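LOG
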Amino acid sequence: MEERLWWRVARWLFLCVLSFIVSYYLWGWLGCAVMVMIGLHELGHIVAAKYFGYQTGGFVFIPALGGVATIKEPVLNLRHAFWIWFAGPLSGLLQII
């Protein structure tokens, strides 16, 4: 049975807010800026995976450590795997520009 959407959203929001609070407590506004950059980095992986037709589980913030993007099925095509991997750092480069 699939998990309820409201529970997934509530859990994601809780971890997002907790991550921002921990980052702010440890590093101030710089920590919050880093969390935004991590979020955009993980979103790059998710967008690339969706582009190639893979089902994703979204991404989750891990307080004081970073984030994890999940794909629900194995990526067997090496070209797809490369572009999904590269989309995270690419979104970081676009943030700088």
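LOG (cont.) second protein
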Amino acid sequence: MIITTTDTLQGVEIAEYIGIVTVATAADGPSMKEMIKCKNGDFSVVGETVNAALTADLTRAGEKVGADAIIGVRFQNVGFGMKTNYTYSIGTAVKLKK
């Protein structure tokens, strides 16, 4: 499964646009220990974990609809902080020309 933020795939032709797929996850905000370690505001470790989960979920969502790729993927984080965060991702499932 190819997952990309671009709207096209270089050197590959899209045969069919299947439709939009969305996935979401809820995660607790960073712990006090994580915040101290990230005192420069770099919460990338927390973000990487959430994005990895969303990418895995996108892969499953794409496979469920028979897609070869998900293009135009966007990640959106809502409410980052001490409370639970809601993060979602959206993209377009496509079939590739073989």
